[in-house]
Amino acid sequence: QVQVVESGGDSVQPGGSLRLSCAVSKLDGRITRMHWYRQGPGYQRVYVAQIDWATGRTVYADSVKGRFTISRDNFENTGYLQMNNLRPEDAGWYYCELEVSTPPNDRVIKYWGRGTQVTVSS
Questions:
Q1: Which of 5, 62, 66, 122 is deepest in the core (most CB within 10 A)?
Q2: In the 8-state DSSP scheme, what is residue 97?
Q3: Residue 41 has what pLDDT?
Q4: Could you tell me where the beta strands, DSSP code E, fall in the chain?
Q5: By C-alpha distance, which of 87, 82, 96 is closest to 119?
């Protein structure tokens, strides 16, 4: 069973930075895409960013463009979310969703981690 583990969450002041990691283990296929989502207290999970694992092409939610950068390390099977100039509205639990193309028929299976918490307050 593929395992997805987020880390790097912490408490920072507005304007601060954090780097979240999403580590993948027990991979039984090929990663095709990684997504980051945020869920604030009392809110639904919202999309933050995604990266195509093969090409490195990225897509961001408008609210984080220019402040967040998603990246990946193909060799280490780890994804990252660099968050700069954090705002109070960025606070919440951050979740990594992984899409894996799985043999023998390349069916794409999605896996979620348990999240890492980010707090932004002065």
A1: 5
A2: E
A3: 84
A4: 3-7, 11-12, 18-25, 30-39, 46-52, 58-60, 68-73, 78-83, 92-102, 107-112, 116-120
A5: 87
